[in-house]
Amino acid sequence: MSSEVVIARAYSDDRKGVADSLLIADEKALYDRGLKAAEEGKDSEAIDLLTKVISLNSRNVAAYVVRAQVFQKLSQNQEALKDYDAAIKLMNDSKELGLLYGMRGDLYKASRRFPEAIADFTKAIEKNPDDRQALFLRGNSQYLAGRPDDAISDFLLILKKKSDDIEALYEMGNAHANKHEFAEAIRLFDKVSGLEPTHTLAMYSRAQAYYCLGAYEKALEEFQKCIKAGIYDEYCRIWTLIIMKQIKSDGYDRYAEEFKTYVSAAKTGEWIRIVSRYLLDLDAASEADVLTEARKAKSARETDERLCEAYFFLAVKNLQNGDKQSAAAFLQKSLDTNVYEFYEYVTAGVLLKSIRVADKQGI
Fold this sequence. Notes:
The chain has 20 helices and no strands. It is an all-alpha fold.
């Protein structure tokens, strides 16, 4: 059970919260058992016990909070939201109310309801200006909602208080990349790596940023480092293949054969495997195969993410074949998914812009 359960416990311990003064003996015993069940991962039991507590006392804030956490763990987000709403209506204490806004904001963020998440994190910060987590999550929500400028503003507020905050530095780098400010993104990723050399996401994002900047040799070097480190292995192999072909590397044919062997021997089941086969002209994998596999995702969001990648890599293959018109159409479809946080989305914007510039110049 997450740290918020500890917060919920604080509401009813040592008379610090509103719930304790309202608990009668049976209610207190049921609550303690429900909290213990939640902490032990006995979700159904916890929900049953906490529901009984609420039936005895509909003003028990702690019970609503813990039950909301259990519902959220089970991805029953609507039920969790109802409990957070009830707890917020009952809570009067300013700082603890801020914590509840932060918890509900986190639920909204997980549900990708970013406007509501941003509003709740803003309320949490108003109640507790030193709530760094709420500020970070608001910045991250801004970024995921396609508002990189607002995200950068929030991350800068964190960095003013702690200049070596690794999370803020990394996410601010991604926000700059989203704005196609790749040199600044690389500077921030370098700073993250200096503070934490094993920060794998910074390594991968830096490789992507170098590619978008047009520094293909440097991007190739960075992706090869990622492969050695075991980071996003097949994605990095795909990008290595793309770059080697793009720069007409002498080692392309040998690498392509090695990659084919890798793909043929690797276990099936990973979505990206069909993309590798398509780019390698392996097993007659087609555009239709890639899109069909992308649409087999388990959720609407995962489908959007896969399609963002699928359309991008279909565009790359069409560019390699000299079909700029089809490539541009696929790049636009990748952008239309609005998966702002994916580098395929960011790179699609870069490539589409370059195609349009070339068309204007008659190249």
